[in-house]
Each structure stands twice: as structure tokens, then as C-alpha cells.
Amino acid sequence: MQNTPSPANVRGASPGGRGPGVSHGRVLVVDDDPTVAEVAAGYLERAGYDVERAGDGLAALERFAALRPDLVVLDLMLPGMDGFEVCRRMRAQGPVPVVMLTARGDEDDRILGLETGADDYVTKPFSPRELVLRVEAVLRRGRRTDLSSPARLSGAGLCLEPLARRATRDGKDLALTLREFDLLVFFLSHPGQAFTREELMREVWGWDFGDLSTVTVHVRRLRGKVETDPARPALIRTVWGVGYRLDLPDDDVPGN
Asked: What range(s) does the Response regulatory domain occupy (predicted)?
């Protein structure tokens, strides 16, 4: 493992509990460093989560299959089987939000982690309070039931049911991660409008700050699933100097 935080480097005071006996979900923490795993698990438990731990990739897959957690906190640098492969195998069993732990400065690892399907990441040495906030944000987006959302969004062969969190293209189910789904819902809700990466980070991720490459990677992954030719995107367009815009065929534009 690289840049393993010592207790002195794991920053932050206790976030405070939310009351005994109240569970906000089940989280699997996967890290081969006992100190990191203990600190992360402790803060998440005090924040109201039921937490299970695993120290390597094989143990993580076994615990995942048995527990079906609501979210996984996953270190990239694991012995035997790295976090990238663990994430791929978990996702093959079913959708699950993943927050990855990465070494500070390893941008390539962070990008690859996001491309593997991670919903968010926290860099080491990390603030336990930040980890709890990231976990809460990811789960909140996944569980949110916005009754003002339309029952159905469609265009260019895409059909989304936001309340059911179901997406299809030309009648075939799309395997979208939590963030990819939310991003596509946002784009289909605002066709023809250009948004900066900062605006997308705020509206889709719910953060006023963060690494904007997160947005770039998710747009690229989403294009790979909804575009006929991802190398020449016809739906999710890059607006140079601004950000991104969803263009629908004229027949699909509301009001036409």
C-alpha cells in the first residue's frame, strides 16, 4: 500500500453519533492496513452505519456476496487482487456505489478508478469526516426520491425512469452506475443547454468543490454507453471553452 496514513495523519475530530440503534445503511470497508480500516469503520459507525471490514480482495468479494452492502469503501492498493479488479468483480454481481481510497498525487490511479466505475474517491492521508460526507452524499443521491421528477424522460432512443432508476436504449437495459444515471437524467432534463464542469459537479454530485476530472471521466464513460460512436459523440457534445451539452434529434426536442 502506498502513502498509508498513520493515526496522526488521519485527520479530523469525531463527527458525532446520530443516536444508538439507528442504522443509515451497511458499508463494507476494504483496506489491508488495520489502522486505516479501524479509523474509517469507527467514524462510519459513529455516523450511524453498520460496518463490515475486509483486509484483501478475496475476503472483500466473499463479504460482498454475503452481505450485499449499500456501499463499499475500497482501497486501490490491495495485496493479491487490486481494488480495480475487486470493483469490476463486485459490479459484475450487481450495482453498488463505491468510494475508492487512493494515494495522494496518483492521478492516473484516480482516473482509472473512476473509469472502473467508482462513484467517488478520497485521497490518503484523508480526513475521516470527509470520508463520512462522501459516503453520505453518494448514498443520498442513490436513495433520493424526488417526487417532482418526471416519471419518464426520453429522447434519441433513450428512456429513463428516474423514480425506478431504470434506463434503456432502444428497448435494451443500460448498465449505468449511480453517477452515470444521475448525469444522464440531468442532461435529458435540460436538452440543448450547455453546462460547465463546475455546474455539473454541483448539480449532479452535490459538491461545490472537487476534482473536475471526475466529471470528465463520467462523461466519457456515459458516452461509451449511449453514443453510437463514442469517438464522435452526437448526443453529449463538448462545448469548447464551456463544458458539455446534450443534443437531441429535432423530432425529440420538446415543442417541435
From this structure: 26-139
